[in-house]
Amino acid sequence: MDRTKAKAGNLLATKPLDFLDIRPEESVGEKLLDAVFQTLECLPHDGVLKLLAGSRPDVLIAQLTEHGYQIKSRQEQENIWDIEILGTAAPDIVDLRGYEAPEPMHQILLAASRLDGDKTYFARLPHVPHPLFPLLRERNLRWWVHEEVDRSALLAVRAAP
Amino acid sequence: MNGGMPNAGLSLEQAPHLLVPASFFLMVPLSLLLAGAILMHAGVASLSHPWNPQVIALTHVGTIGVLLMGMVGALYQMTPVVAGTPVAAIRVAHGVHVLLLTGLVCFVWRLLGGPAFAMTLAGYSLAMALLGFLLPVGWSLASSVTRDETTLGMRLAVASLAVLAAMGLLVARGYAESGFPDNRFLLTQVHLTVALLGWVGGLIVSISWQVVPMFYLAPSPAKRSRQAMLGALVAGLILPFAAFAMQPNNDVALSPTRLAAVAALPAALAVWFFHPLLTLHSIHQRKRRRTDASLLYWRAGLSVALLLVPLAAMASLADDYRWQILFGWLAIWGWAGMILHGMLTRIMPFLVWFHRLTPLIGKMRVPSIRGLLSQGRIKTGFAIHLASLVLGAATIVTQSDILARLTGLAITATGFSLGSSLVHVLHLGQRHLLQHPIK
């Protein structure tokens, strides 16, 4: 199981976006379920967990749905499935992939300026928005970004505690 | 997954101040005024025989004053974003700017009848400017952990700039009365190949993979296509150097200079055939078909690029020197100049918006980048640029002195149009900031 953690440990408790590559563990059912649920427990209720799977994990999806999670699954390539697990209080993910630069940046900064203390803003972008990061830091915001298989990105922004 | 840690990634302090790229970009319209003045003063002599000093002067106003200035400014801005590593000692950029300008002015002065020491001064100024640019930018690109094709292409372009500069300075010594090297013609041919295909081509191709999808929502070419283009580019840049191992001979058909030109074919096909074809196709397939005047420049520049391989063949094979001049004119002003002009109309508003207006977002209504530079202004600039391009081509074909001077007038108008657009955008950003100071 490959898990890319954020570098600062104290971020784990509030990290609203995480990623697991479950392809090596798919055949080991219980171990996989434990790992996924453990990761979800570390996420806030409005968090999102991204999974990279070799096939559609139907059993896992059924269990997660029973626990109130929303699941979105999409086959990216022949042996690559993208599974998105949305926390029970996850907000809508704003899709900014259809906007030319710098419109997505404009929208994100605008939305971030209206963020309440413990809320998370999620957006899908056409690519990882490197020039945005220093602007978020200037505003004392924290961000997490996941680069998708198709090189688009999922971004989470929240206010620093 | 990357996290937003307080000290991770780039900070605004590490990114270059707006003044750094803007100071280089503003040299582009000024250089156009200089090019226009040369054409209006020297007339058709500046678009006649390739070895005419006026032609060499005009060519280098185009390559150093327009292309190099614009591309150096763009690299200072893009290197930290694309490579993820800041450019060290960014303040040196101001010195690079002054030295490049000094070098260009002295270079042109000598070729238009100035004293020999002007070329010596030009050589030292340009060498120091390029060292001041190449060392920090090259280090930033080389130390980047990013291994995508855009970063590789940028590295190739920067390495090409170092090589072409060394060759150019070697030949330029002849104008400083220090004697031309024995293999002057071969050196010039390889200098031209590395300049147009490695430096200009490498940068246009690799940056287009980043900016065309970002600004126009056009699909990126497949990874394999990008890798194949880079491979062909590298091959076409290395092979011409084999000609230096050949003994000079009297057989014109198999001269080292001609073989060096032929050996560049893989790179020429990558930059002037496959890249324009794929990029035009990609632009045609873009997801959001919103009218954007800067695309006119891309379309025109890429269409001109498709003419360059046959024109290069004619320039290499035909005895009529006009083919060489026409090839150079279309490559510098029709392909690279056109794309650079279009990108400036997109990048300058973006930078002003990024540096001046983003701090205001959420506090007040902030204009979009389209609100900083109107589509009408961009279209006007395009029409004048296109007119100057056609006039220049007609001058070369007819060798008409009056057409040459009209071309000079049109280039001057292009310079005024671009300059006024850039200053207008900077002024708007500054005015916004003054009216709404950041607390």
Beta-strand content of chain A: 25-35%
CATH class of chain B: Mainly Alpha
The CATH homologous superfamily name of the largest domain in chain A equals TusA-like domain
- Low-confidence parts of chain B: 3-13
Strand content of chain B: under 5%
Q: Please tell me how large the radius of gyration of chain A is.
A: 16 Å
In the CATH hierarchy, the third-tier topology of the largest domain in chain A is known as: Translation Initiation Factor IF3
Looking at the structure, what is the overall shape of chain B?
Answer: globular
Strand line-up across the major sheet of chain A: 1-2-4-3
Oligomer state of the chains in this structure: heterodimer
Count every helix of chain A, treating DSSP H or I runs of 4 or more residues as helices: 4
- Can you give the mean pLDDT of chain B? 92
How is this fold's topology laid out?
The complex is a heterodimer of chains A (161) and B (439).
Chain A: E1 17-21, H1 29-42, E2 48-53, H2 58-66, E3 70-77, E4 80-86, E5 93-95, H3 103-113, E6 120-125, H4 132-138, E7 141-147, E8 153-159
Parallel strand pairs in A: 1-2, 5-6
Antiparallel strand pairs in A: 2-4, 3-4, 6-8, 7-8
Chain B: E1 2-3, H1 19-42, H2 53-83, H3 92-111, H4 116-142, H5 149-172, H6 184-216, H7 223-238, H8 256-263, H9 265-284, H10 294-317, H11 322-357, H12 375-398, H13 401-435
Helix pairs in contact in B: 1-2, 1-3, 1-13, 2-3, 2-4, 2-11, 3-4, 4-5, 5-6, 5-7, 6-7, 6-8, 6-9, 6-11, 7-9, 9-10, 10-11, 10-12, 11-12, 11-13, 12-13
Structure, described:
The complex is a heterodimer of chains A (161) and B (439). By secondary structure, chain A is an alpha/beta fold. Chain A folds into two domains: 9-86, Translation Initiation Factor IF3, CATH 3.30.110; 93-159, Translation Initiation Factor IF3 (2-Layer Sandwich), CATH 3.30.110.40. Chain A has four helices and eight strands. In chain A, the strands form two sheets. A four-stranded mixed beta sheet of chain A has the order 1-2-4-3, with helices on one face. In chain A, strands 5-6-8-7 form a four-stranded mixed beta sheet, with helices on one face. In chain A, strand 7 (141-147) and strand 8 form a beta hairpin. Mean pLDDT of chain A is 83; it is low at 1-13. Chain B is mainly α and 439 residues long. Chain B has one domain (19-240, 253-433): Cytochrome C Oxidase, Chain A (Up-down Bundle), CATH 1.20.210. Chain B is 73% helix and 0% strand. Chain B has helices at residues 19-42, 53-83, 92-111, 116-142, 149-172, 184-216, 223-238, 256-263, 265-284, 294-317, 322-357, 375-398, 401-435; one strand at 2-3. In chain B, helix 4 packs antiparallel against helix 5 (149-172). Chain B is globular. Chain B starts with a strand and ends with a helix. Chain A binds chain B through residues 4-8, 11, 15, 17-19, 98-103, 105-106, 109-110, 112-114, 126-128, 130-131, 133-138, 141-146, 151, 157, 160, and chain B through 1-6, 8-12, 14-15, 81, 84, 213-217, 220, 287-288, 290, 292, 350, 353-354, 358-359, 361-363, 366, 368-369.
